[in-house]
User: What shape does this take?
Amino acid sequence: MAKALFRLLKFLRRTQFLLFFLTAAYLMAGSLLLLQRTRLVIQQGSRGTPANQALPVPDEMTRVGIVDPRTLQNPRPGPRLLVGMDALQEPALDQRHGPRWLMSRNSELRQLRRRWFHRFINDQEPMQTAGFKAMKRTTEHKGTYMGCFTDDSRERTLKGAVFYDLRKMTVAHCQEACADRAYSYAGLAYGAECYCGNTLPAAASKPEECNSECKGEKGSVCGGVNRLSIYRVEELRAGARRRRNVIYRGCFRAPENLTDTFPASLIQPNLTVEMCSEFCSKKEFPLAVIRGQECYCGYPTGRFSLRDGADGLRCSGARNASSAAEGKYCLVYQTPVQDTRCTDRKFLTTKSKVFVALSSFPGAGNTWARHLIEHATGYYTGSYYFDGALYNKGFKGEKDHWRSRRTICVKTHESGKTEIEMFDSAILLIRNPYKSLMAEFNRKYAGHLGYATDRNWKSKEWPDFVNSYASWWASHVLEWLKYGKRLLIVHYEDLKQSLIPKLKEMVKFLNVTVTEDRLLCVENNRDGNFKRSGAKQKDFEPFTQEMKDLINRYILTVDEALRGRNFTGLPREYVPR
Assistant: This one.
């Protein structure tokens, strides 16, 4: 017994010594690694590009248009600047400040972008909490509960408008959203989805089947799986709200046969805009058309596309009987009702054989382009990242794994060789860097729909932001041009100016066939929920001359690279003259 105890104690002493030795070795290795990484960071931090330097490129490469970093390993003497102006020519610069350095910085900038992205998501919490407190003031408004109903996604009755909120959905929030758009019913499903409409579903369900608790209101029921908890919306300041949400679209020449063009009509003596708008809203049509005492409701179609407006003076008497008798012109108003012909979206039923990226620099309008693509094709878009705020706005692909191939294309801001080559093709969205930088800075400090404050613009972070992100704007395009397998170049400004023609190109590139009416529906819903709100500073110029010189050099570099690949160069408004 004593011998066995002695052996046990000897073993424990050896084990203690071994553990002590391994712990000491682990700590020493960790310290050495930390010192090595600190040294690396210091070296990288010393590689900043002075704002007054341009990008040197050997002469033979300027004829090709795109910069190959391999040619810079032994550069010829006397490189010239991609500026096109003798006044800006400078002596040859160190290799680390050339295009190779510009493109190699992508890894560093991506890490910076991700840190800012995650910090932005965390910063959203106080804003969402504040919004929730505002909702709490109306939680007593419950409306009239109509019951639990079956929700058929293919034949949905409440299809007038759709809202999502994964964290803060409440009954009152849904009711206010639907009442604000002049709908009669508000339906909630899955605890976080809100649907609006003017007609109750035909199939009722058992009350216990609506068993999902509202995400933002404990104890309240917000539908269930394929089940809707439906409330009749009480009219809270309904008259003022409806009038506020009616938008004048203009004066247009009336189609030859209004009855065939518009599905619903009303003849009313002393007809007013409010009367016609309310009538069309109840019928769930987005357009209210007035000609004399006649009110017509419908959608934009090929016969009435709202593209060719007439002089407003021609409609000055459009509500008079004499003008109505002539029947030449009519007044058109946008009702609060959403055009639902293009709002149905779904995931691909089979995995896509072609893996398509929707690539852009941050702030270039990627979210808006996704809105357009989803409504045009009827399929969700995916994302390399996860943004809960975008999921709440209906981008269900945000929660789907970006490599699932169940989405029509995948949003990405990445631009490394590996990240690019994993895609079979890509839509490369390019926007004026001045606008992109300001949009991304606004998003960083005020979210997707807000504006940064004057204090933000005057802070130290703005010039640091420009110095880092301006080079990323250029390197993003250069690397996609170099490593992308099949590209469709889309300029944000062209998409904004010629929406339907450019959207047709994008849809064709995605190998999807769509109808003309669906494209007109997209045009009718072109802004979605992506217009920034708040005070926008007029004649605001945040860029110093030093910043402009830096950005202009990048613009000319990218322009020449695009032309070198036989793409159309940047729009004229980009290029400094």
